[in-house]
Structures are given as C-alpha cells and as structure tokens.
Amino acid sequence: MSASSPDPCRVWRKLAQMNRLANHRLHGACAGLSAADYAAPRASFFPSIRATLNHILLVDRFYINALEGNALDTAALDEARGLLTLAALVQAQANSDARLLALVDRLQPEDLARVVRVDRGTRSQHDRADDLLSHLFQHQTHHRGQVHAMLSSTPIAPPQLDEFIVGDDAGARAADMAALGWSEADLMR
Predict the structure, then answer these.
(1) Which backbone phi and psi does 22 adopt, to 5 degrees?
(2) CB 38: neighbour CB atoms within 10 A?
(3) Is Metal-binding one of the keywords UniProt gives this record (predicted)?
(4) Structural domain contains residue 5
C-alpha cells in the first residue's frame, strides 16, 4: 500500500491504541482508591468499580479469543470475573490489550470482511470481523464511562478519557504514552 493510499486497517489500530491508553489512564486513577472503595457497591449496571473493570476484561477476552479463531475459553472468563485486586486486574488487562494490539496490527484489508465464528458455548454466532471489533470498542468505551461516573462518588477525580486519537491531543497523552513506551510516530502511523 503506498503512502498516499488509504489504509482501512489504520482506524482499528488507532482504536486499539486508544483502548490501551484509556485503560492505562483509568487504572491509574483507580490506583488511588482504597480496596474498600474499589469493591464498594455503587449505582451502575455492574454494582462496583471492580465488577465493571472485571467485566471489561471478560468481554475483551471473549471477543479477542473469537477473533483469533479460538473456541470458548470458560476458564479465562471465570478468571476475569473473579479478580479481586486492582493489581491483578491491571496486569490481566494489559495482557489483553497487548493481544488486541497484536491482532489489529496483523489485520489486512481483506480480514475485515472475514466472518468470525463466536463460540457462545450453547450456540455459535457468526459476524464480520469489523463488526465484532466495532462492537468490542463501543462496549469497552461504554463501560469505562460507567467506571468514570462511579469514580465521581469517590475521593478520586475521574480522569479524562478522550484525548488519544488526534494530533492535537499529543500534550494531553504524553505522560501515558511515555509510561507505555510509545512514541507519537507509533500512534499516528
């Protein structure tokens, strides 16, 4: 693909990078919570910050697994549901984010229309890879927003979660990029 040709996979790479950056920033804010505040019941779809972050990881594992062509991994999903500490969640989510980044880095334009079998245990779902990626990124953004709102009822200020995609956001994301060992060239390619 020439430098002037549009790259249909670029948007998926940027969304996976945004996903990693947002998780990093959100986890950094949550690190200021006490264990009690992290697990405390709160008004949300999932009844705590911990349960919501665990759900984000579970759904990542579920869809990444399918996009990689694997069968349902109930052990990985059960583990995601049961992570009790933020430290364990942060490490597991970083590993999941790395898998997603690697997956989208391997994407070729023809892969986007590939039909993926999603093993749901009792049934199979079949959807295009680009539709599953769209669903995954929307889902994760939605639930990070819930954690953001729940942080409002704690002593920790919710972090900014939308300064990751365009060039003008470079200053706002610089610390996160440095912490992850990324350069602007990595993000803006």
Answers:
(1) -65, -40
(2) 20
(3) yes
(4) no
Digitized pLDDT (tens) for each residue of the chain, 189 residues in all: 555 678 999 999 999 999 999 999 999 999 999 999 999 999 989 999 999 999 999 999 999 999 999 999 999 999 999 999 999 999 999 999 999 999 999 999 999 999 999 999 999 999 999 999 999 999 999 999 999 999 999 999 999 998 888 999 999 999 999 999 999 998 888
Domain span holding position 14: 10-188
Whether this model's pTM surpasses 0.90: yes
Q: What are phi and psi of 9, to 5 degrees?
A: -90, -10
Total domains present in the chain: 1
Q: How many CB atoms lie within 10 A of CB 32?
A: 14
